[in-house]
Design a protein that fits this description.
By secondary structure, this protein is mostly beta strands. The protein has 2 domains: 126 residues, no CATH class; 146 residues, no CATH class. 0% of the residues lie in helices and 44% in strands. The protein is built from no helices and 31 strands. The radius of gyration is 24 Å and the shape is globular.
């Protein structure tokens, strides 16, 4: 297959009657010689009418089989569909294992696989606004051959799903949320102005030569470093608690970045809170002794103020144990760097 023409399977537009856009179509090309086609392939959904959604992206699948060696590429691309709104594209094949040399996920695309599957992607090419969901029972390996990679898409990782990553990963997506197994990740970086949520159900693991070297308890992440670049946000969401601390050798927050935690216990070597960064523990705890109308804030540190004309209630919890951690605790094997006191 050669040439530079165009293959179009674009969805139909919703028109002026508030109709939703039609989905893109499907292209499957099987070649027994190297791909020499350099033309354009359009699989995007159609535009939505006023107040309506566009159609989701279709798919373009290319497979080359040369002397018994098979190479597969999958394209999901909804660039140009308006208004921008993530629509789901499902992949439901009979095979329980998929291997793509390249997977392109662009535009407002949301890719989901169906069933208990293992998906191997040697090179993921993604764009902001796109999302991959890793559901329970699914394992996704992306760019494991790289030592580091910047991911422009977002990942939604379910509690019993697994995401295998390069040792260093920078997350540039708008809606990353991790609740399952983060495997082989050592250095987690949240890009400027981006947000990432770590669930207390998530855990880290190391997988080498076909076997797991370790798997942390849920909520007790073990990482070499977590870095929040300027104006980034990391949220450790509320829920399941582990008695083991987070093992983070280096935690660094750049200017304008915010780390919010409901329960925080860290064992590490260095914590760097650069000027203008915030470690926020001013969150609502769930102590059963609270009054139903209790407001927000950290609590446990002293007496609350009285309301107008009403004497304050008696404090709950052990509010006198100043050296005992309750909501947040930070431990270090070395003295914290001087920047901590400058933030």
């Amino acid at each position: 297959m050669t040439g530079s023409g165009s293959i179009l399977v674009q969805g139909g537009d919703g028109g002026q009657q508030e109709g939703g856009g039609g989905s893109g179509g499907r292209i499957s090309v099987y070649l027994e010689s190297p791909k020499a086609f350099t033309g354009k392939v359009v699989v995007r959904g159609g535009d939505g009418g006023p107040g309506s959604q566009p159609g989701g992206s279709g798919t373009a699948y290319w497979q080359e089989s040369i002397n018994g060696v098979v190479a597969s590429n999958l394209y999901v691309d909804n660039r140009g569909a308006l208004p921008e709104f993530p629509q789901v594209t499902l992949v439901n094949e009979t095979s329980s294992r998929h291997h793509f040399e390249e997977l392109h996920l662009l535009g407002s695309s949301h890719l989901k696989f169906v069933g208990d599957v293992v998906v191997l992607i040697d090179r993921l090419v993604s764009g902001t606004g796109s999302t991959i969901t890793i559901h329970d029972g699914m394992a996704l390996s992306v760019n494991e051959g790289f030592t580091e990679h910047t991911f422009y898409c977002s990942f939604k990782l379910s509690p019993d799903g697994e995401l295998r990553l390069p040792a260093r990963a920078t997350f540039l997506g708008d809606a990353n949320s991790f609740s399952g197994n983060l495997t082989n990740l050592q250095d987690l970086v949240v890009a400027p102005y981006k947000s990432l949520v770590l669930s207390p159900l998530a855990r880290t693991a190391l997988f080498v030569d076909g076997s797991y070297q370790f798997s942390s308890p849920r909520g007790a992440y073990k990482l070499s470093s977590i870095t929040l670049q300027h104006h980034a946000t990391l949220i450790l969401s509320e829920g399941y608690q582990t008695e083991e601390p987070l093992a983070i050798s280096l935690l660094e927050l750049d200017y304008g970045s915010i780390m919010t935690a409901y329960n925080l216990m860290i064992s590490g070597s260095d914590m760097v809170l650069n000027p203008g960064s915030t470690l926020n523990l001013q969150v609502v705890d769930t102590d059963q002794e609270r009054d139903a109308d209790t407001g927000t804030g950290a609590g446990y540190g002293g007496f609350g103020g009285s309301s107008s004309g009403i004497t304050a209630g008696y404090p709950y919890g052990n509010y006198t144990a100043a050296l005992t951690p309750v909501v947040g605790e930070v431990k270090g094997h070395q003295e914290f760097q001087e920047e901590v006191v400058d933030c």
